[in-house]
Each structure stands twice: as structure tokens, then as C-alpha cells.
């Protein structure tokens, strides 16, 4: 216990110290939100990766989908690596950086407002972000607090308050640069920790081959496949593919992820960041889902029915020596605090610049900074309250909360953002259609599930439907609705043709 507490004190102390140190890099809005658009490749890559993977992945998704699909859950991690990291950097990274700087855009709502010449779109996007980031943030508290309860036997409420307060301190003090530096440190902890934990858990089962053999002997009551949990696609390939799509392609429409591309410093940052973030996703996401696939060796179906999926990974880890439990706590704490800091910074900057700034246009630089810092605190407090209320309600699975959040945000934003970067013909009406359809579809799925087919009642599957529908329907709606002024659109896209040594679509100066 002394060792665990000592490691936590060192960890929390260093996070707060970095936040205070980074205050000198957060003296204006551009620095506080984007780090002055001068964040190096390693910090950018780790900021992207650590915002991607949190306790939601490590405790919630790895436990639930490892239980459902066995070793095939590893495909989710591989999808996160290839689609969510490699393809995202290749297809979105450079074009996002170039156009957002050309439009002088600091947030995703601001991009929609300027790219489609509509202040109302900017306001609508900021409201959607603020509303649907809350359940995601609440899920972070849930996952981390379950692990803390296992390791320290601490009350859930204390865990929620401690995590929220400490994250708020360093984000309020240092803004984006503080989160980026902390993300780098936290990311290194995650990389090392996941490898050590996987080795220790499998060693406790007699090694990898022994664990696979034991898992192959467990039968799935819903499948006739022998050894379903060690098969190539597991006992339920369709739902597995839906999980891969939501957690991988869905990141393309998440504001806290896309905004990392706004901060890129140079062409080197894109090339290095692509490689680093892809390797990071392979180790962390692949490792988490691979580990979760062995959950059936530690619990029975009756125990999971009684305690929920979120207890699976903590139960697996409870068998480890104290030193490894301490490492695990720091690992998941790192993952969760890095994601939480990204979420609260995204939400506060969006509300200040895009919503409050829309109605109060005479805000000075210092007033905007103060407003963002206050809203960081407000957002943390609201999320903590939601987390505590959720803990006592019937929404008990982390994956449900994340599915609702990711589904609504990706369903609303992915298609118009992607087409907005690449296709001049994307219309304003099509963006409105995507916003309304994505959010209303997920709200309906949450409130009136019985009206949906059985396979679509899961928020995961519903999120995929919302996302894919946007990709298919946005170009169709665009072709049947009035186009934007061609001169205006040509001006937006001219940034890709500005000459450096090559066109900016190929390299940032």
C-alpha cells in the first residue's frame, strides 16, 4: 500500500508541476487551445494516442468485447491502429492543418462555421459537442474508479473527485501545452505498462499457449463453433465488425481527436506523428483487447451477469503482485487523465470561442482565457456529477456511455468534416442534415430502443449506422440542394495550391 500511494503521489505531483510550468505557454487563446500551432511530432502523436485510449478502452471495452469475442477482440485494436490512427493521419492530418490555418479556425465548430459560411452551423456544432462529450467523460470516471476500488478499496466518490480536481488544475494552468507534455509522459507509461501486464497475466495462466488452450475449451452457449473464443472472428463476426468501425472510423469525427491535427508544427511532424501514433495504437489498443480476450479464464458467466462487464479486467488484474497492480493503476490513470484533459479543453474552448463568442463579440483576449479556464472547471464538475448519478442508475456499462457519445458525434460530424476537406460541392444543407440525423438517431436509440430492430438497439451498432448513413447521404443531399458560392469555395481550397517547395496538399512549409 505504501508503494502504491508513493507512486500516486509522484504521478500526481509531476502532472500538477507540468501544468504550472506550462503557464508561460498559455498566455493567449491560440497558445491555450492549440499550443501556438507549434507542437512537435512526438508530443502531437502521443497527444492523439492518449486522447484515443483511456479507461473506457482498458476497463470497459476490453472487458466487454474480450468476453463476447475472445481473442478475436484483438481485431478491434488492429482496426484502431490501421483505420483510427494510420489512415486518419494520412487522410486528415495534412489537409486539416492546412485548411484550418487558412480559415484561422481553432475548433471544429469554427471550421464548420467558416468552411460553410454559416454562424448557425458553428453554434449548433458547439452545442452538440458540449452535450455529447459529457457521457464520454462520465465513462472515464467510471472505469478508473472501479480500478481504484480494487487496488485501494477507496469509495467511488473520492476517486471521481480526486481525478477531476487534479486534471482540472493542470489543464486550467497550462492549457494545451500542459496536456501535450503530460500526454507524452502518460503515453510512455501506457506503452511500458501494457506490455508488462500482459506478460504477467499470461504467465499466471502458465504462458500464452496454455492460456489459449484453456480458452479454447470454453464453449459459447450461443454458438455451435468449437473453441469459438480462440477462432479467427470469434462467435459473433457481425457485431465484432461494428465495434471495429465505431472505435476506428468514428475517431475521424471526434472533435478532441481531429483538433490534434490543428496543432501540427511541420511536415516532419506529420510523417513522424503518423508512425508514432500507429505504433502506439498497435501496442496499447491491440494489447488491451488482446488481454481482455482472456477474461473468461478469470470469471464465470454468472459472476459477470451479477457484477457487469466492467469488473472483468479489474478481476484479472487483482491476481497480480502489488507492484504490478501499482503499475496498472498508474497506467489506467495516465490513460484516463490524458483523455479527460483533452475532452475538457475541447469542450471549454468550443463553448468560449464558438458559443459565448458568437453572442458576445467584444470579448477581449484575457476575458476569453478566463472564460475557458472557468468552463474547464464547470465541465469537470458537471461530468463528475453525471458520473456519480450514472453509477447509481441502470446505465452500468462503460461501453454504453461511450457508444452513445461516439455515435452521436461521429454520426453528426464525420461526413461533413471529411467532405468539407476534400469536396467543393458539399452543401450547407447536407451539413445540417448530418448534424440533425446523427444526433436525433442516437437520442432515439437511447430513449425509445423498442422501435429499432433488435440488432440496432445496441448503441455501438446504432452509432455505426449513424456514421455510415452520413457518409452515404451527405453527398446525395449535396447534389440535390443549392451549392455554395463557387468563388467563396475556390478561395477556401486555394490553400492547398499555395506553393512551398511542393503544393501544400503534399507538404506543410
Give a written overview of the molecule.
This protein has 509 residues and is an all-alpha fold. It has one domain (2-497): Sodium/glucose cotransporter, CATH 1.20.1730. 75% of the residues lie in helices and 0% in strands. The chain has 20 helices and no strands. The mean pLDDT is 85.
Summary?
The chain has 509 residues and is mainly alpha-helical. The chain has helices at residues 2-21, 29-34, 41-52, 55-69, 74-102, 108-115, 119-152, 156-204, 208-216, 237-248, 255-262, 267-292, 301-307, 312-317, 322-359, 365-391, 398-422, 428-447, 459-479, 486-493. It is 75% helix and 0% strand.
Q: For the terminal residues, how far apart are their CA atoms?
A: 52 Å
- Strand-and-helix sequence, N→C? HHHHHHHHHHHHHHHHHHHH
> Roughly what fraction of the amino acids lie in strands?
under 5%
How does the helix and strand content classify structurally?
Answer: mainly alpha
Fraction of residues in H or I helices:
over 70%
What is the CATH architecture descriptor? Answer: Up-down Bundle
* Number of separate structural domains: 1
Q: Uncertain spans, ≥5 residues at pLDDT below 50? A: none
Shape: globular
Number of helices: 20
Number of strands: 0
Query: Main sheet, how many strands, which sense, barrel?
Result: none
CATH superfamily descriptor = Sodium/glucose cotransporter
From the alpha-carbon coordinates, what is the Rg to the nearest angstrom?
22 Å
User: Could you name the CATH topology?
Assistant: Sodium/glucose cotransporter
CATH class, named Mainly Alpha
* Mean of pLDDT: 85
Amino acid at each position: 500500500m505504501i508503494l502504491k500511494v508513493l507512486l500516486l503521489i509522484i504521478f500526481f505531483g509531476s502532472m500538477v508541476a507540468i501544468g504550472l510550468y506550462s503557464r508561460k505557454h498559455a498566455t493567449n487563446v491560440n497558445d491555450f487551445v492549440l499550443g501556438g500551432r507549434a507542437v512537435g511530432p512526438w508530443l502531437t502523436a502521443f497527444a492523439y494516442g492518449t486522447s484515443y485510449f483511456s479507461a473506457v478502452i482498458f476497463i470497459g471495452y476490453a472487458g466487454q468485447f474480450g468476453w463476447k469475442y475472445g481473442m478475436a477482440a484483438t481485431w478491434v485494436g488492429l482496426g484502431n491502429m490501421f483505420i483510427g490512427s494510420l489512415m486518419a493521419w494520412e487522410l486528415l492530418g495534412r489537409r486539416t492543418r492546412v485548411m484550418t490555418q487558412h480559415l484561422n479556425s481553432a475548433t471544429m465548430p469554427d471550421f464548420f462555421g467558416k468552411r460553410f459560411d454559416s454562424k448557425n452551423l458553428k453554434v449548433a456544432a458547439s452545442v452538440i459537442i458540449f452535450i455529447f462529450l459529457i457521457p464520454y467523460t462520465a465513462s472515464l470516471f467510471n472505469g478508473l474508479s472501479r480500478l481504484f476500488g480494487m487496488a485501494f478499496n477507496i469509495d467511488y466518490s473520492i476517486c471521481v473527485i480526486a481525478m477531476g480536481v487534479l486534471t482540472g488544475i493542470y489543464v486550467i494552468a497550462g492549457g494545451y501545452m500542459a496536456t501535450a507534455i503530460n500526454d507524452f509522459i502518460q503515453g510512455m507509461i501506457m506503452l511500458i505498462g501494457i506490455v508488462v501486464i500482459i506478460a504477467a497475466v499470461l504467465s499466471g495462466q502458465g504462458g500464452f499457449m496454455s492460456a489459449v488452450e484453456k480458452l479454447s475449451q470454453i464453449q459459447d452457449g450461443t454458438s455451435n463453433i468449437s473453441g469459438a473464443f480462440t477462432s479467427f472472428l470469434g462467435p459473433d463476426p457481425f457485431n465484432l465488425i461494428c465495434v471495429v468501425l465505431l472505435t476506428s472510423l468514428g475517431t475521424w469525427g471526434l472533435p478532441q481527436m481531429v483538433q490534434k491535427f490543428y496543432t501540427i508544427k511541420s511536415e516532419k511532424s506529420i510523417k513522424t506523428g503518423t508512425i508514432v501514433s500507429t505504433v502506439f495504437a498497435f501496442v496499447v489498443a491491440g494489447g488491451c483487447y488482446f488481454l481482455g480476450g482472456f477474461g473468461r479464464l478469470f470469471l464465470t458467466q454468472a459472476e459477470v451477469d451479477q457484477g457487469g462487464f466492467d469488473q472483468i479486467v479489474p478481476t484479472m488484474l487483482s491476481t497480480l503482485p502489488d507492484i504490478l497492480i501499482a503499475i496498472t493503476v498508474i497506467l489506467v490513470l495516465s490513460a484516463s487523465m490524458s483523455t479527460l484533459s483533452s475532452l475538457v479543453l475541447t469542450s471549454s474552448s468550443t463553448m468560449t470561442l464558438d458559443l459565448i463568442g458568437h453572442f458576445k463579440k467584444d470579448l477581449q483576449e484575457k476575458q476569453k482565457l478566463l472564460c475557458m479556464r472557468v468552463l474547464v472547471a464547470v465541465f469537470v464538475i458537471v461530468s463528475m456529477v453525471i458520473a456519480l448519478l450514472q453509477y447509481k442508475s441502470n446505465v452500468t456499462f462503460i461501453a454504453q456511455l461511450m457508444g452513445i457519445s461516439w455515435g452521436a458525434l461521429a454520426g453528426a460530424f464525420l461526413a461533413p468534416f471529411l467532405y468539407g476537406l476534400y469536396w467543393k460541392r458539399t452543401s450547407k444543407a447536407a451539413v445540417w442534415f448530418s448534424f440533425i440525423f446523427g444526433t436525433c438517431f442516437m437520442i432515439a436509440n437511447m430513449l425509445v430502443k423498442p422501435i429499432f430492430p433488435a440488432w440496432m438497439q445496441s448503441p455501438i451498432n446504432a452509432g455505426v449506422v449513424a456514421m455510415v448513413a452520413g457518409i452515404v447521404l451527405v453527398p446525395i443531399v449535396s447534389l440535390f440542394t443549392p451549392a455554395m458560392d463557387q468563388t467563396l469555395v475556390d478561395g477556401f481550397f486555394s490553400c492547398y495550391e499555395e506553393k512551398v517547395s511542393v503544393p501544400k496538399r503534399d507538404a506543410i512549409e
